[in-house]
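Much of what follows relies on a compact textual record of a protein's fold. A record is reproduced here so that you can trace the correspondence yourselves:

. . .
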Amino acid sequence: MRYLGLDLGTRTLGISISDTTKTIASALKTIRFNDSEYDSLIPELKNIIEEYQISKIVLGLPKNMNNTMGERCETTINFQKKLIDIFNIEVVLQDERLTTVQATNYMLEADISRKKRKRKIDSLAANIILQTYLDREKGGKL
């Protein structure tokens, strides 16, 4: 059993996956979809959940920097409810503030080209979301 990390955007879904010990997260892929057509993500997520025997989903919650929740949070919470209803699996929300900034900084330090950064940013952000959750879970801080 593994955990799945998700970074939901308006046109992309970054996906990461844990190892079976739930210690290390790895970027898996980014799914591109038409603006806000979140239902189109369900078939591919179903395949991933079945293939990797996912036992929990960690979904990034895009809070504002002042800790308030805006429209993007509402969209994310609605997506969380949809995932729970469809897959009957636990979906936890993980604060994702600054994960995209972290992901960009990692790639800049690694001297990754702008074109490659654009393709990888969402899955790396999902990786940071999931790894943060795994670290907190192992430390008993959930």
